[in-house]
Design brief:
By secondary structure, the protein is an alpha+beta fold. It folds into 2 domains: about 30 residues; about 120 residues. It is about 15% helix and about 45% strand. The chain has 1 helix and 8 strands, in the order αββββββββ. Strands 1-2-3-4-5-6-7-8 form an 8-stranded antiparallel barrel. It is globular and about 65 Å long. The protein starts with 5 loop residues before the first helix and ends with a strand.
Amino acid sequence: MPDMNRRGFLKLAGIGTAAAAGAGIPAVDLLFGNRDGTIAIRAVGGVPAEPLPSYASYVLDGYVDVARKTGILTRTVLAGHPGATSEIALPGLARTVKITDVQRMGNMLHLQGVIVDRSQLSPGESPDMDIRIDRMGGVVWAQSGANTLQLTLLQ
């Protein structure tokens, strides 16, 4: 085996990374293709939204069964902007959302849900949630109080 120098190692690492990224493309299609199974969702966005600097991360995490039109999502607000999220949840902002309906519109999913524990709601906060997922564009739009946030779909 020939000696490996730094340049050779970096070339090899780059080729390996490109191959791994290419291998992941079918998995994305399997996850978000037009199928009627259960899909996992993890989306993150900055709070507050641009143009203001984000000091927290809005995280939407869970699963949706497209065929049965059900699912559970957890909405959590973590300290730190999306590039440096901590594990510290900001108190009083976590919500569990029970999905009650799923509508498919091309590559988009429109989810309707309700917050499970209504005792956690802030005054004037609606228990109803509307979430839109652009599966191919990798974007999720979710409510936060009276605002709609744009999140980046991670899986």
